[in-house]
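note to self: dont lose this again. the chain is below, predicted strucutre after it. 143 aa total, dont forget to put it in the shared folder this time
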Amino acid sequence: METTQAERDHEVFQTICNWVGDIGLVISKKNDNESLLVVEDEERGISNMVIDCENPILEIQQSIMGVPTGADVTHLYERLLQMNGTLVHGAFMLSDDSNQIRFRDTLRLATLDLEELRGTVNALHFALEEYGDELIDLRHSLD
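---
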C-alpha cells in the first residue's frame, strides 16, 4: 500500500524528534499537528529554540536578544553582518517586527541527515561562545 504525503511528513518529523534526542537536546514542547518542536540545552546556550519541519525545509530559529525601539542600531546591524560572514551554518537575522535578533538556519528535508542537524546546533553553540559577550555589550550600548 502506498503511503500518503501526510504519513511521509509524519515519519520525517518523528525522525527529527529522534535526532534531536541523539544530539542531546531536550524537547520542552512538541506539536505533532504543526510538526513543530521547542528544544532546550542550557549548556550550549539553547533556550526555546524552535525547530519547524515544513516540507520541503527544516527551519531552526533561536532568539538571541531584543532590540530596543528607537535606538541607533546601525553599528549593531553592521557587526551582525560581519559575524554572519564567519558562521559555518545559519545566520543572525531580524524578526519581522525588527524587535528581536535571532539565529536562523534552513535545511532541506529531502537530504537532511543527523550530522547536518548536529552541525547547525553546533554552529549556534560556537557562535554564542565566540560572540556572546560581544552581543551582550552591543545590546547594553543601545540602552
